[in-house]
Amino acid sequence: MKNFRYLYLLFTICLSVAGCSPKGAGSSAFEKAFVPLTKAVPDAILEIRYYGTYNFVGDRIDGYYAPTAWLTREAAEALKAVSDDVMAQGYRLKIYDAYRPQSGVDHFVRWAADVPDVRMKAYFYPDLDKGVLFEQDYIMAKSGHTRGSTVDLTLFDMSTGKEVDMGGTFDWFGPESHPDFCGDPETGQYNGDNSASPAGRSITPQQFANRMILRRAMLSHGFKPLDSEWWHFTLADEPFPDTYFDHPVE
């Protein structure tokens, strides 16, 4: 009995010391490689969509335990430079998502397989049958977000006190979200070509120009874009190109 009590006491002490338990050790390693955006980019506004229910799933996403955001230290440092850049132009960054745990990606995959659940269809994918989300790569089993150096964001206009009009909502599934919709992102020129939109939607020259302000700032400070989402950028020289983390957002 005495030996049992001694072992139990030892086990309890070990759990109370940071790093002794597997969870503690993981947390310590994560915090060495990652930084909270509230600390790294204090001027950024956080609207973490997957912590709430206004997202394409309609529920809080697994792994999101707080309305906060994390990035690798390298990505956060580059994003601070972006923030300083756009602040000088009268804007602030507004963050929708950054590091995403694998459990969150797994939640997306389960949701996509549940074809009858179309609660949020009218808001995020009205022109698509939910059954095509896998084959058209809107939902995938792996995400660059899980590597920790990808961020989804937009601009906030400090003069109007409103989010900048980008001509479409974050996480809209469709060609209207592509950076080359109605223009050439390489030259920044608007051409009005909306032929890719299945419903004949369009964006204005100003909305396209707004997207280009964000794009230029991100590319100028080491991020690379995604050809299907105007809001999505990944640090070109990401530190964990082959690692997919599952630490919770907390």
Which structural traits does this protein have?
globular; two-stranded antiparallel sheet; disordered N terminus; alpha+beta; 250 residues; 16% strand; 6-stranded mixed sheet
Descriptive overview:
The protein is of the alpha+beta class and 250 residues long. The chain has helices at residues 2-16, 22-33, 37-40, 73-88, 102-113, 121-124, 205-220; strands spanning 34-36, 45-46, 70-72, 91-97, 150-157, 162-163, 183-184, 189-190, 223-226, 229-235. The strands form three sheets. Strands 2, 4, 5, 6, 9 and 10 form a six-stranded mixed β-sheet that branches. A two-stranded antiparallel ribbon has the order 1-3. β5 (150-157) and β6 (162-163) form a beta hairpin. The model is unreliable at 1-25 (pLDDT under 50).
Blueprint of the fold:
Elements lengths: L1 H15 L5 H12 E3 H4 L4 E2 L23 E3 H16 L2 E7 L4 H12 L7 H4 L25 E8 L4 E2 L19 E2 L4 E2 L14 H16 L2 E4 L2 E7 L15
Parallel strand pairs: 2-4
Antiparallel strand pairs: 1-3, 4-5, 5-6, 5-10, 7-8, 9-10
Helix pairs in contact: 4-7
Described by the principal axes of the CA atoms, the overall outline is globular
The percentage of residues in β strands lies in 15-25%
Rg over C-alpha atoms, rounded to the nearest angstrom: 21 Å
The total of helices stands at 7
Helix content: 25-40%
Unreliable spans: 1-25
Arithmetic mean of pLDDT: 90
List how many beta strands DSSP finds.
10
Largest sheet: 6 strands, mixed
What would you say about this model in short?
This protein is 32% helix and 16% strand. It is built from seven helices and ten strands. The strands form three sheets. Strands 2, 4, 5, 6, 9 and 10 form a six-stranded mixed sheet that branches.
